[in-house]
Amino acid sequence: MHLKLVSLLAAAFLLSSPARAFTCGELWQGWISSQKAASEQTAADHFEAGFFAGYVYVLGNVSQHINFPDGSTYKDWAKAVGAYLESRPDRHAEKGPMCIDDALIETYGRL
To answer: Which of 12, 17, 41, 46 supports an S-S bond with 33, CB 3.0-4.6 Å?
Structure first.
């Protein structure tokens, strides 16, 4: 119950703050940074990587309409979103929440 409340509050913050101004292209750059950070073991030095993972974590946890596989985590979701954004440069100018939601739906389907 508390995790759900915290996730909802975090989603409300993301959607009402300047963070919402991030484009899909900027989030994709975060995905690239997260891959580089994972290989270098310096994730703390990559703001975009942390923000990308946080964005996917919050939006994934509040999404009641996506058919996530049992046992999947935000790391799996982030890989799906990163691959989607890499294959869809036409979406890079859009605002972040929509392309992440679309990427997760395209990968996992709707409930």
So the answer is: 46
